[in-house]
């Protein structure tokens, strides 16, 4: 199963999505943010909280 969202390079590193994600699916990996497929429920709360629209919904 692929992740429901991806973090793009527009991310400014505010950390809001990490704190907001109810399943802690967003993790810092090597200086960028990675969405753990198995944990993401597709709730899109991260997408809504991001101040710079850096998170995109994955096409299904
Ligand atoms: S869509 Fe929901 S579960 Fe998935 S990374 Fe964003 S906040 Fe977390
Ligand atoms: S909320 Fe947006 S800008 Fe902030 S860390 Fe997450 S993806 Fe980056």
Features:
60 residues, alpha+beta, Alpha-Beta Plaits, two-stranded antiparallel sheet, 2 helices, globular, binds iron/sulfur cluster
Bound compounds:
iron/sulfur cluster
Derived from helix and strand composition plus strand pairing, the structural class reads: alpha+beta
Distance between the termini: 10 Å
User: How many DSSP E strands?
Assistant: 4
In the CATH hierarchy, what is the class? Answer: Alpha Beta
Shape: globular
Radius of gyration: 10 Å
Nearest-integer average pLDDT: 94
H-E string: EHEEHE
Low-confidence stretches: none
Largest pleated sheet = 2 strands, antiparallel
Give the CATH topology. Answer: Alpha-Beta Plaits
Q: What topology, given as strand order, has the largest sheet? A: 1-4
Oligomer type: single chain
Number of separate domains: 1
Number of H/I helices: 2
- Helix share bin: 10-25%
| CATH architecture descriptor name | 2-Layer Sandwich
